[in-house]
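Mods, move this if it's the wrong board.
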Amino acid sequence: HSREMIKLRGKDEVMVGWYHSHPFKLCAECPLPVPVECQQKILFYSQDDIDLMQTTFEQPYMVGLLAAVEPRIEEAIGHVPVKLYGWRDGQIQQRGFEIFDSRPAST
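Not the wrong board. Structure tokens:
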């Protein structure tokens, strides 16, 4: 649908990526700070994710953002748990990024 809308608008727009989340919750017994092995069960690129990236977002500038809706991880790391994936040397790899707080400073 997105590609159809881009074509319909006719403004030479380009889709550069996609985002999704994995529906997973930590168990109640998982301690804080959340162990890395628990975070890895939520924030990982599955084989389906890799297949989609390879077939639909195959250009070198295209990215995939993975987000987890898990309040305990967010609390432990201080921001929404996200990972960015992109292309490097023809392979899908985790990429770096920065999160900026866009909320106005309180006075």
